[in-house]
Amino acid sequence: MTKQYDHAYFEKWYRDARHRVGSRAELARKVAMVVHLAEYYLARPLRNVLDVGCGEGLWRAPLLKLRPGIEYRGLDSSAYAVARYGRRRDIGLATFGQLGDLRFDTRFDLIVCSDVLHYVPARELQRGLSGFGDLLEGLAFLEVFTSRDNASGDTHGFIARAPAWYRARFVDAGLLPCGSHSYLSPRLLRSVAALECL
């Protein structure tokens, strides 16, 4: 059975107290960490964010609260999420793999892909990562859970890959790990000290 990211899915995993993972406070802390880390490496305030696999755009409100002038763009494969929130929250229809071909009129200071990649087939994941060299100016937050993690929540379609598998794919895409699910664009490599990298 194909997984459906429809109204019922978002109700269960994002709003039902029995199933949802995380809280608004946890999300706010995570967003603040990522914003400040990106700005530290960019040495300036964030201008724009691409949120890939954004669902209903949960990152949008805390991002705008921290940086009211930021340009937010979301992408998701859920026809439901795009139909319901696309216009109001600037969410377009796209899969992760399409990042290999999609280009915008600017590069992004921050690319967020939170709790998505462990559901994406290997070939599609590699295809999407191949576009990061053109899309990313600053920091990518790629929150992914592996075969070594005690992941909770939606396990339907979860692909339990080894941490080394993801590390190799991210390095192949030119991304430099700097901790806490965060990776630097090749454009920032000259300004990073050796012990900032993992």
Automatic annotation (TrEMBL):
GO molecular function, one term: methyltransferase activity
SUPFAM superfamilies reported for this sequence: S-adenosyl-L-methionine-dependent methyltransferases
Keyword Transferase included in the entry's annotation: yes
UniProt cross-references to Pfam families, sorted A to Z: Methyltransf_12 (PF08242)
Keywords, comma-separated and alphabetical: Methyltransferase, Transferase
Coiled-coil segments: none
GO biological process, any: methylation
Methyltransferase among keywords: yes
Residues in Methyltransferase type domain copies: 50-136
Superkingdom classification of source: Bacteria
Protein name, UniProt field: Class I SAM-dependent methyltransferase
Organism this protein belongs to: Dokdonella soli
